[in-house]
Amino acid sequence: MGASSSRVVRQQACADDDKPTTKDNPLLKAVHEEIASQVQQAPNKAALGRPHLTGGQANQALSSLPACLQDLHLGMPPSLRGANVRLMKIAAVLKWSQLKAYEVVDLETEALQVPYADTDDELWKRVVTISWRWAKRKPGVYEPGFLPMSDLQFRELKATLQHAVDSSGVEYVWIDWSCVPQVYSEDSMVEVHRSKVFYARAHLMHILPTFEDLPEEGPVRVILAKAQRVLHTRASASAAAADETESLQCAVAESVIGAILEKNRTAGREYFGRVWTLAERMARHGRSEGLCNWLSLESWLGMVVDAMVKNTEDNASSIIYKKMLGQNAAGLLDAVLGPLAIAVRLGGVQAAACDHLEDKVADLCVAAVGVWLSPSPLEEAPTREWLHVYLGQEARSGIYQAWSEADRVWAIYSYFCWKRLDQRSEAGLRMALDDLAETAGGDKGTYLQGMYAQLRIAPEMDRQQDKLEAAPTAFKRWLALVMCGSINRFGAHGAEITRLVGLLDSRTAKIQIKAARSLMTLATNDANRAAISQAGGIPPLVKLLDSSDTGVQQWAVGALSNLAYNNDANRVAIAQAGGIPTLVKLLDSSDTGVQQWAAGALAKRACENDNNRDAISQADGIPPLVKLLDSSDTGVQKQAARALANLCSKDANQVAIAQAGGIPPLVKLLDSSDTGVQEWAAWALASLAYANVANRVAIAQAGGIPPLVKLLDSSDTGVQMQAARALVSLAYANDANLAAISQAGGIPPLVKLLDSSDTGVQKQAARALMIVASRNDANQVAIAQAGGIPPLVKLLDSSDTGVQEEAARALNSLACANDANQVAIAQAGGIPPLVKLLDSSDNGVQEQAARAFNSLAYAKDANQVAIAQAGSIPPLVKLLDSSDTGVQQRAAVALVSLAYANVANRVAIAQAGGIPTLVKLLDSSDTGVQMQAARALVSLAYANDANLAAISQAGGIPPLVKLLDSSDTGVQKQAARALMVVASRNDANQVAIAQAGGIPPLVKLLDSSDNGVQEEAARALNSLACANDANQVAIAQAGGIPPLVKLLDSSDNGVQEQAARALNSLACANDANQVAIAQTGGIPPLVKLLDSSDTGVQMQAARALVSLAYANDANLAAISQAGGIPPLVKLLDSSDNGVQMQAARALVSLAYANDANLAAISQAGGIPPLVKLLDSPDTVDARRRAAARAMGALAAGAASKAPKLWSGVVPLLAKLQSSSPDAQVRQLAAKILAWDL
Questions:
Q1: Of 1017, 1021, 993, which Cα lies nearest the Cα of 1006?
Q2: Burial 363-391 (b: 16+ CB within 10 A, else e)
Q3: Can you say whether residue 450 is alpha, beta or left, with left for phi > 0 and alpha for psi between -120 and 50 degrees?
Q4: How far apart are CA 461 and CA 455, in angstroms?
Q5: Cα torsion through 136, 137, 139, 142, rounded to 10
Q6: What does the alpha-carbon distance between residue 1224 and residue 1230 come to, in Å, rounded to a whole number?
Q7: What confidence tens digit (pLDDT) does each residue in 365-375 have?
Q8: What pTM does this model have?
Q9: What family is this (predicted)?
């Protein structure tokens, strides 16, 4: 067909279909203006030509609906009328990151749930229903993380809901995934059927299709681009010819085709061809609604394009669209399909048959725009006339598709019959067909014959007749009840269940299958589960597991699985009947279906409790499960991996699975083409590695890390989540695996997953990054370079508390001891949302936010200030009163870091009431809380007299003293340190600590096996003894001197330093203690410490010797005899000013009125370094005075006047005499020079 003839067909189609004019239908002009605005404001965003969600007859009351729809309401059984209907709050849904399943919806904040009988027209006029095509089929068995809605669909859903709120003021949405039970034990189909009433009564309905990418190869994009140009040309030409309608239709179609090309996707054609969505649309019968009220123009044209493209592969793809387009416009579609098929086959558009194909596509698009705009209602209606056509033609023509053939019946059955039948049985299906055929009228036999063929039911079978002629009459009767579905999950009674249980003992496999299958159906109801067990159903079902018929085995497994669901008594009964060993035995079946069901049943049992996990292991279930991992059947692989994953909750099973060789095949399954297999293999590996060092190594050695990293890029969120989870388990406390994950390129995809729309994926990715960053400086840097910090900060604002917690945890790990990341997190805006999280209602979130603040503030002055300015201190102080010890501990730690070396923050924490609360936490039963509370008090008290006093006034001293007796060394250490700080510079606190009994336990801690405890105890005793006579005496009386002397021989420099320091304070101006220390043998080890490589030790040892020598001739002699003078002289040349000063002071004490020591100092070469100290320009007054005093002592002794001792320093003495700024030094130099040197 040439261009001119195509044009004629197009014009004829538009004429026959009464194309709208702007005068007759102002909607066209409005749509054109809206699309122009959308393209200009937000290209490539929301779908063009949004649905006009006003409804054909706004707020239509129930009483004004067609009779066939009112009948749905009137015929609803009382039990269902009284059952709750759930409506989602649109405001809540708009905050979600993905569609939530029924079971995880928060009823209090996210939904309205009321009995259907209590709903009225006023409520329904505030409701929009969603009719949508699931992107994925619901699996036959439960799979964690399954979600039928794609990310694109969910974004479109949220945009449409916002549009509905803005344009119509609706408040609630009904959508099956969130409003219908999804667990496999609930009868969700009842609510699905009842929902037809909801679709009928709701104010609005919106259609949500799937989305398909345009073909990557071939001519489709070229044809659409050419058609877009044709539409542009026509729009301009029509405008010039003053044909406004033609111009606007072409312009609108041009814009939509442009959007499809820009986004490289179309809406999927499948929606209108599905029988379930047909049933939902039929509920809108009686309203003057058209396509423009239900879906966007972009979605509609996309569906037409997709049907056109898919028709090249499947001729049935376009049937429904030909019907919807109307006879003449359908001719336009036919005109496109033939040439398009040739173009697709050739991969180009140059063939003669493809000439003017773009014109034909343009014609079709314009006609489709007209159909979308048409207010004419669609033909489907729940009437007897429609049913006649449906059963006679449409259900068998391929026009409507379904997940299963039986859905062709069940989707529309409840429009005509309010009767419950067994939808899982062939007998129930037959009965439903018979009911529909009789309702439709006409040739019932023709209907049934055609539908039997379509549904693949053998026509010779009759639902009322049993084929087992030899069976007893009673037996036949009850078997017939089973087969026809009269015994179902709703209407079964005790007597019926008892008879069904009796059928399990039949000698005929067919009867056993029917009975087991019916019991499986019944067992989806709590009451029936109990009734079947009471009727003795469990032992014969377990017995059937040993049947030689694989069908019997499968249905028996299914029945037992349902019986065990949510019923502890049945689980015990199954185990006692030997169910687990028999299920294990079935793993060796030659039938893959039996293997899969058995492995799935064991997976469920293993998930329930440790007893079952033990029973499976004891029945030698692990080796055959491992063997099934090598099956060629993906269903078997999946269930085997699932069972092994659930068994890993027991440590012994982790070991057994590894020993059975389970790790290599699980690693191999990571490369499966089946996402379910990948997910469960990763799950199993994560569980195997959890808290098992050997398995972490084995998985890495089996090559598990690279494929797990690869799976992070999967398109399946469940796979992504479990791969990340497995990497978490592998990396924990394993430096080699941490490095391997980074080397395998794991960091960039983990960072990418932070932007996932799935909260479970976000959570695991953040957790993995936290682990990868911990204890690994290179990974901290790599995560930051990969852009990980901004998305982690963004996740702090997630609506999911688990995501918030893991994001905060990861930021803590990145900031820990990493200056650059501390800065980067602050610059990325991380501090304000972390402050906000401190007020979370979730303890885990609070704890991790506080923990992150600790790392951000630690040794980072700018962050300390920023965190305080962001208002963090009051909520952190408030968290100290949390009922959760982890929160208390982390809040205290954060306050430690904020107060460290920050005067303003110490004041602010005290003003926020932090001190009394911290004191209160000292009495916590949790040692971690005790320790961090004591640490925080240390930081607050340091160099802050007001806080020192406040701690005492708050009663902090007694509990700190009490903590010295803790069995935890960390608590002992921090309590001792706190007492040291509290006692320093505060006489009253020194007294209070002693009165509270603090000295004896501190003395006791000197004998601790922990060096840190020894050091802090000695430090505290020094602080208590400093300038406090009573405490000096009390410490000595408590036996403190011998252990302090003993600590001088410690191998730890810190212990040595603090012990020497304490002995100095004890000996200072205390004759008795001077004597006691010397008698305890303190002088030799102190002299020995003068040769330490640690300047702090040298200085405190010299100080202690100063105090011991002061006015004590015996100690003067003892220090000299112990060889103290040469190392003290040597220390005068130390690079440490404090050491020089204390050495000089010690030499002063030794030389005072002691000629022998004077001579020894002189002979040891003490004169030159002392003179040098006097001359040094950087010598402070205290050191100069100490050196001068030492020189003065030397100058006073006759033994020091030997010229040879001074010969090398005469020039320096002359310089000091003339130019020293210190008069005492000038006089001393002059005195010495007056000698005959």
A1: 1017
A2: bbbbbbbbbbbbeeebebbbbeebbbebb
A3: alpha
A4: 13
A5: 60
A6: 10
A7: 999 888 888 86
A8: 0.60
A9: Belongs to the beta-catenin family.
